[in-house]
From TrEMBL:
Gene3D superfamilies: Jelly Rolls (2.60.120.10). Residues 48-111 form the Cupin type-2 domain. This is Cupin domain-containing protein. Coiled coil: none annotated. SUPFAM superfamilies: RmlC-like cupins. It comes from Goodfellowiella coeruleoviolacea.
């Protein structure tokens, strides 16, 4: 990653953001390589009662969520919380997390991850959703993207109750 230029602000116009369409709509705003490694930022819109990320953790990066509209059910460690419009959630490195929208509302939210490049991961997920890549490719990319999947009985029970 290139260093952030202290004399240059990073501005991404909505019309210039790459947009991935699938089960969810993801606007790729700025990746780590665009921000000198400071942060990767994306905006996601999910319809109600939609599965997002399966239980996973990141060894090296925190992940932050800011809910703009609607709500998200989020696994954090061994419990599930609901983040609503205006709520901010920071998941520290190593903590299991997953998310989905509740049955009664969709969500519009920001993903923020410091010091990483995430856009290629979002692109891979999008290709899998479209049938252009195998889900095995996601499993094979765990080290590359610091996205380590595992089982969560708490999350399984939460999702089964839908």
């Amino acid at each position: 990653m290139t260093a952030l230029n202290p004399d240059h602000a990073v501005l991404v116009r909505a019309a210039d953001a790459e947009v991935l369409h699938g089960t969810t709509t993801v606007h790729l705003l700025a990746d780590g390589s665009d921000t000198g490694g400071v942060i990767s930022a994306a905006r996601s819109r999910m319809p109600r009662d939609t599965a997002g990320a399966s239980p996973h953790h990141h060894r090296n990066a925190a992940e932050m969520f800011f809910v703009i509209e609607g709500g998200l059910d989020v696994l954090v460690g061994d419990r599930v919380v609901t983040a609503r419009a205006g709520d901010f959630l920071l998941v520290p490195p190593g903590m299991a997390h997953a998310f989905r929208t509740p049955a009664d509302t969709g969500a519009d939210f920001l993903f923020l991850m410091p010091e990483v490049d995430r856009f290629d991961y979002f692109r891979l997920l999008n290709r899998v959703q479209q049938g252009l890549a195998s889900p095995q490719e996601i499993l094979d990319s765990q080290e590359r993207f610091d996205n380590h999947f595992h089982e969560s009985p708490v999350w399984t029970e939460h999702c089964a109750g839908r």
